[in-house]
Amino acid sequence: xxxxxxxxxxxxxxxxxxxxxxxxxxxxxxxxxxxxxxxxxxxxxxxxxxxxxxxxxxxxxxxxxxxxxxxxxxxxxxxxxxxxxxxxxxxxxxxxxxxxxxxxxxxxxxxxxxxxxxxxxxxxxxxxxxxxxxxxxxxxxxxxxxxxxxxxxxxxxxxxxxxxxxxxxxxxxxxxxxxxxxxxxxxxxxxxxxxxxxxxxxxxxxxxxxxxxxxxxxxxxxxxxxxxx
Length: 229
Fold this sequence. Notes:
The protein has 229 residues and is α+β, with helices and mostly antiparallel strands. It has a domain at 45-194. Helices cover 31% and strands 9% of the residues. It contains three helices and seven strands; from the N terminus they run ααβαββββββ. The protein is elongated.
């Protein structure tokens, strides 16, 4: 028996509508995944920025070298004095050029919030902006990393999510602390740890690369960290 043409047409239209809905769902799902990945990458960039800001604030607190454009502002050596003219521990300044762990000689800040306004012993210096106290991945405070003497030496995220970025980190980050990690919580920004020359595999504009000169004329350095771009 022949089917009614209108009924056949209606059935075809219904199937077409279902197919279109399914296709639109797939497209929207893919778009959401791309957008989510883009946002995650942006949060990773901000995580690295804020983490290094906290790390450098701790370096200033402990009078450790803070490389400027990849170099150490150094005007004295361990043979001529214990600190440089900028107050930096000269013995630690040498470690920057060879890589390694610098010895901390000053007391630890009570907590990270101390770095916002400093103390009498820190000459009321402002080392850190309030926004940098927040882990951009979780929106919460950092996990504090301490050494064997219970000094605060760095921070890490509390996120257990898998990082998208697995290599090519900035030159001032030790690859051993970042590359191939399975969780953001394994990324540690340690103030007294300096990567060995040539060990890093990434790069950012303005930082020293392998083969660059080892020294540079000292530059003035403000204790206040720069804000997020």
